[in-house]
Design goal:
Blueprint: E1 2-7, H1 16-28, E2 35-37, H2 49-55, H3 62-74, E3 77-86, E4 92-99, E5 105-110, H4 121-124, E6 132-135, E7 140-143, H5 152-160, E8 165-169, H6 177-191, E9 194-198, E10 203-204, E11 207-208, E12 214-216, E13 222-225, E14 231-236, H7 240-248, H8 261-266
Parallel strand pairs: 1-2, 2-3, 7-8, 8-9
Antiparallel strand pairs: 1-14, 3-4, 4-5, 6-7, 9-12, 10-11, 12-13
Keywords: Hydrolase
Organism: Streptomyces avermitilis (strain ATCC 31267 / DSM 46492 / JCM 5070 / NBRC 14893 / NCIMB 12804 / NRRL 8165 / MA-4680)
Family: Belongs to the carbon-nitrogen hydrolase superfamily. NIT1/NIT2 family.
Length: 268
């Protein structure tokens, strides 16, 4: 299976419209790969909080339209990263869009863990609540977004739902790049799954982006890693390696869920 991660440069020197046109062309040029992945909130930038409201769109908005057309023109599965979605009730969500090679919207995922603590995305957007997997011909993809990477229980839920390849669009800051790489490898090792994590390049809202999009195999080996600037990272991988790894080193079968009942019995 071949995948291209499009590590898009997101900075204020380029308008949202111009970036949307540029990214649409880049997706069209990926004909021949099976899966294309874009980063989180690449229209606005993940830290451009003040533009979320103005640039929010519905699931039938300009980004969704452009991505549907680009996916069908290229004939690829497209994880189009995420958009600031305005839901019918007015709530904003950080919503990922996955398109089939025919350009149909196969799945949406509203980011569950919002970043910012008591500001930014955490107060401007609503939280998703549903785990999402998508069946591709070669593999079952589990989707998560950026800050979700820090929450291993979400990924265990995706594995329980059948995920073999974990796709994670992000707008991860340069300041915590070491966490990004470490956590991507950790999620791959502990879940014995491929991890395809696609970040952004550039600087927006004063936050330099880490870049370093990364593809990790179920043994934790890094198959490909981008630099810091805009880059297309194309990688070939064998989805069958997930079953082989899980069979040869069946750690997932040894999961034991802890219980608090023992501790309660021992309490005075
Ligand atoms: O967890 C981090 O360090 C970065 C998360 C983030 O930037 C995001 O979710 O947008």
């Amino acid at each position: 299976m071949r995948a291209s991660l499009l590590q898009i440069r997101v900075d204020e020197g380029e308008s949202v419209d111009s970036r949307r046109r540029r990214v649409t062309s880049l997706v069209r040029e990926q004909a021949g790969v099976d899966l294309v992945v874009l980063p989180e909130l690449w229209t606005t930038g993940a830290f451009a909080y003040e533009s979320f409201d103005a640039e929010a769109e519905s699931l039938e908005g300009p980004t969704s339209d452009a991505m549907a057309n680009a996916a069908s023109e290229a004939g690829v599965w497209l994880h189009a990263g995420s958009i600031p979605e305005r839901a019918p009730d007015g709530t904003l969500y950080n919503t990922s869009l996955v398109f089939t090679p025919g350009g149909e919207l196969a799945a949406t995922y509203r980011k569950i863990h919002r970043f910012g603590f008591d500001k930014g995305e955490a107060v401007l957007m609503g939280a998703g609540s549903e785990l999402v997997t998508v069946r591709l011909p070669e593999t079952t993809v589990g989707v998560a977004t950026c800050y979700d990477l820090r929450f291993p229980e979400l990924f265990r839920g995706l594995v329980d739902a059948g995920a073999e390849t974990l796709v994670i669009p992000a707008g991860w800051p340069e300041r915590r790049r070491s966490h990004w790489t470490l956590l991507a490898q950790a999620r791959a090792v502990e879940n014995q799954a491929f991890v395809l994590a696609c970040g952004t390049a550039g600087t927006h809202a004063g936050v330099p982006q880490a870049g370093h999009s990364i593809v990790v195999d179920p043994w934790g080996e890094v198959l490909a890693e981008a630099g810091t600037d805009e880059e297309i990272l194309t990688v070939e991988f064998d989805p069958a390696k997930v079953a082989v790894t899980r069979e040869q080193f069946p750690a997932l079968k040894d999961r034991v869920l802890g219980s608090t009942s023992t501790a309660r019995r021992q309490a005075p």
